[in-house]
Fold this protein.
Amino acid sequence: MKELAQQAGWSGKKLVFFRRGNFSGLNDDRKAATYLFALLLFSFGAYAETPANLIINPGLDSTNGDKLMKQSMLKEKPLPKDGIMLSASFTEKADAETAYTSGVLKLFQGEIRKNEGVDGKGALYLSEYGYAEIDNGNIYPGEGTIEFWFKPIGDPEVCSHTYLSWGWNTVRIPYCAFSQGWWEGDGGKASTVFILDNSLENGVGMPTLLSVGRWTHYAVTWNTSSNLVESIYRDGVLQLQRRSAKAPTNQVIATPIYLGADLGAALAKGRRAHGYFNYLTFHLRCLSSNEVKQSFLLHAPEDVKRDAENPRAWMSNGLNMPPREMRDKDGVLLESRMIVDEQSFYLRSKTAVDADIDRIARSGFNVVMTCVYHGFGAMYRTDKEKMSKRAIDFQNANPGYDPYAYFIERMHAKGLEVISYFTVMYQDNSKNNGKPAFPTFLANKDDSFYNGYDPRFRDLIISMMLDHAKAYAIDGVDLDFIRCQNGLDTEVAAQEYKKIFGRDLAADRSDEKRMAEFSSYCVDDIVRRTREGLDKIRPGLHLSAAVGVQLANDGLAGNGRNPRIWLEKGWVDFAYCMTYGKSPNMVRFDKARTEVKDPAVWVPLLNNYDYQPGIVPCDPKILAENIDYTRRKYNDGNGVGLYFYPYLSDEQIAALRAGPFKENAKPSLKRNTGGR
């Protein structure tokens, strides 16, 4: 395996590069294995130092491009002397200030919003269904640079978000795409990728570091004068540059340039950017590294500049604070330290389960949020709901033994708490042989999401969660994937909309506000009724949700996920805010805490893994610092959460025990009375 990795360009620490056809001296089987291994490394978000044989400064002379194509363009209209094919600031209008051909954007479910821009001016807002079409004559296929500022609204950790795409011919095969989250296979979900021509199986990618509400500057360059050279930048810094063994030939862009949508690709599946754009520019040539850096600095907010220079600088306002500690009358530290178990590790032998519980206790964590439903059936014993294949197989092999009841008993015996979490609308079709638990209620055929607009599905999932709470002595329930991702165009959604609002869904379909109200009604229905049911079963049971930050001026979410409202009404006790990354953006989190009566209802949920390449445990020092930061700045008893247990390394445990978890703590999750 090590030999294959080296042939694929793996240096032992970082993926340097790989390209198709560079496998001389290998037999066919070894060629195939080497190439597939290299492709796997890239698809899992591998990133690189640029090796010496690649271009470090991509400032290529514009005359190096396809001269025949440029001459053809010159016959139509002189090329711009400043090399700018299109410039659209979006500070005041949706159309471009300058453009080689047409600067008029066809806008779908988007608008200019004042004071939302990267520099406090206006910005182009695209809803979760919105996008814009740009005339394709503004792109020179042979060489160029695309740059823009982007601030996401939708959760970047969950779904793929497309910034740009276009098709190279009328059937959109091949296509160009710039996307957070790659589409061809599951491995690139955590990567941000630019690929000029997907048929070349080449592209440049980097680990995704987006945070909701944070502006990021992106730039990509390409040159096809000989072989294809592509580069990708984030916040003015070159992340990766690669040279392909091939280059596109005789390519003509045959679709509009789609801003914020994947419609230029044959694999279009409704992936939208869902966020704000500023200062979109198409250049006729490859900008140099220094030019990209200067462009970034031109509009960069101070906090973004700071983070670009020092990715850990965001912690400076917290690490100097004394730890915020609460203690009971006996002096015992009260602080919930939750860790997520997505893999339902309780479905194993008693010996293995005991070992994991002991390890969790030794690490300093005192709450485990474990997955009991991932869309393909209950992961526990039940005669009321459909069980997953894994749970059925385990039950058949261990008759009379209830592994989840045993897990809860052993956790409680050690003073640890258990939260059962359900992926409410999501079904992971990569598991259980790809078979969803409830195919009748899928939002679309072969979809990964159930239809939350269907009242029958809402009844079913609520009943499942409440039956589970009755059957097991859990300490709480957590709602994950609690949003309407798909299903708005189904017949059952139209019927439900008519019943609730007395209006025709098709006629209102483009009304973003009405669609947000509809989605919110359906998701609220699940959250509210689950809260009411838990209170009847056992007062004191916690209800939480894994979400992104939502502020008052965000308005209703188009997918119905509105944690701010649920917290305000007291439907959920606390919201685990997914703030992943080495340098999580806490600006919106800080603001959210100022908008509620009890700041403790917003709980940071950090991560302990990294992509370099593949998924690996993150640096123990960084993890310990991040958790220490939250203890000093946010600890109101509800503490902190960590995602997730399989990547909790012994080195991480040692760093935690030497630092923020030096002292054991008792879980102290608080009830949120809200408006109740």
